[in-house]
Structure formats: structure tokens, C-alpha cells
Amino acid sequence: MKILIWVLTLLVLAPWTGAAWLAHALVDVSGNWMSGNADLLAGDPELVATLSWLGRVLAGVGETVIVIVWGLGTAIIVGIALLFSRLVDRDRRIKSMQWHPDDPRATSVERVP
Question: Residue ranges of the domains in the chain?
């Protein structure tokens, strides 16, 4: 059962990581486009430089936010998987502690009068 939990965790992490990677790439491309084409938005060279700088800053902040959100989401997903894995292990240990008198693992104790 533990293997199934971790396989499902990997199946959830794969699209989560892929989506984060695509969002990171999209923010990077849009930041590069905005900083490279700032002259289309304004004619003043000083404003063009400011818009170009702003495009790169916003892209950098966006990339950082995406990495932080991805890390938190990954930690939550792995934490849930770890919790379920421990609960399954705990349930198995509790069931193994229950025994019957005819169980060969049981020890017999004789009473001395």
C-alpha cells in the first residue's frame, strides 16, 4: 500500500512540476518580450529604459513567486503522502499486535501456585 501512495504522489507531482515549469517559462518569455519591445510603448528613451527595467524586474519577481509556490505545493503534496504512508504503517503495526491464544507467535506462561 505504501508503494501505491508514493506512486500516486509521483503522478501528482509530475503535472504540478510541469505546470510550474511552463509558468516559469511563460513569465520569462513575457518579461524578455516586454523589456525588448519597450520602445513600442513609448518614444522617450528614458521611459523606454524604465519600461525595459520594469519588465525584467517583474519577470524576476514572477519567477521567484512561481518557484516559491511550487516548493510549497510540493512540500504539501509530499507531506500528505508521508502522513498517509505513516498511517498505513501504523495500521499494519496495530493489526500485527493483535493475536490469538493459538497463534504460534504467542508465548505461553505457566502459573506456579
Answer: 2-94
